[in-house]
Design goal:
133 residues; alpha+beta; five-stranded mixed beta sheet
Length: 133
């Protein structure tokens, strides 16, 4: 089962989304987060279910009424991890956001992968230490 990891930018996107929705209807903000969480959780078992938009990037469309949300993520097979890079409100907004960000995504992904590698190595070292004792 793939682990789910969020970049700092993805977490800020989710925070902005909930702030925006909370202004008009706090219950809709919680419903949107629950919907996004359910859609993202499916990636644990089916990490490649999103549409490929670049060789290493996938797009997950999360329907909600007449609009919805879009998540940009990569599946890092070496770490068995879905790395969520950005979230956007609506496909139209996502297209603009992702087009503007595609040149930045490799850097965002690289930084997130470095953090992921450090966490992975710490887990391996911790497991090795427990086995030795």
């Amino acid at each position: 089962m793939a682990e789910l990891v969020y970049s700092k930018k993805a977490l800020k996107d989710l925070e902005r989304l909930t702030d925006f929705l909370s202004e008009s209807d706090p219950s809709s903000a919680m419903a949107a987060l629950k919907l996004i969480e359910e859609a993202v959780t499916v990636r644990e078992r089916h990490p490649l279910i999103g549409r490929a938009v670049e060789p290493a990037l996938r797009e997950l469309v999360i329907s909600h009424g007449q609009s919805g949300y879009v998540a940009l993520y990569s599946f890092e097979q070496a770490y068995d991890t879905s790395l969520f890079l950005r979230f956007a409100i609506s496909a139209k907004r996502a297209t603009k956001l992702f087009r503007d960000l595609l040149r930045l995504i490799p850097d965002i992904r690289e930084r997130a992968l470095l953090r992921l590698a450090r966490v992975h190595m710490a887990r391996v070292q911790d497991t090795s230490a427990r086995v030795r004792t």
